[in-house]
Amino acid sequence: MTTKSQPVTNYRIPLVGPEAPDRAWQEASRNYIWSARHAANATRYGVVELLPEGVVRLPERGRIFHAIPAGRAHRIEHAFGFWRTCGADALYIASDYDEGVAYMMVISTAPESYTTDTLHWTCPGCGATLHSVEVPTRRLHLAGLTERALAAVRAFNADAALRTCAQCATVHPPAYGFEPADDNDEERAARASW
Ligand SMILES: [Zn+2]
After folding, report:
1. What is the count of structural domains for the chain?
2. Structure pTM?
3. Cβ atoms within 10 Å of 105's Cβ, excluding its own
């Protein structure tokens, strides 16, 4: 039996050009698509992954195409301030163009294994897990994920005990959610810094 794969035709937010927003999340068929663009002189987004051997940063290149496998904790610096893990692979693309850099991350919601997103924070000093929140994304969809993520961020920021490592006493800096437009002053400053 062969499965014919259908193109995603309801992808509607442009990546570049005058209509393109600085950042967007959209649901298109069974995909969550995050896109963004930066002016050429702006700080670039960077992808970091949490592997058994530690934090690994993707090299900065003019063009990157990278698959983040299901189950691997990852973060896009300045885009969301926590480790995110889910049961689906994510494809991350960064590409220079004549006016700057365009970014895209595509996460298929089709796999049965993708039911939740786990958001968590680790100690910047020793790597110990500080706090973890599970969001039932299959039930809540993208809007619910964004909302729950912001609530988790605010609870984490408001509680110094949550942010303080029990092993080495390092205090994690404040975090930030997916949507820059939702940032309060503390979250905006955090987004700019890590
Ligand atoms: Zn620690």
Report:
1. 1
2. 0.93
3. 22
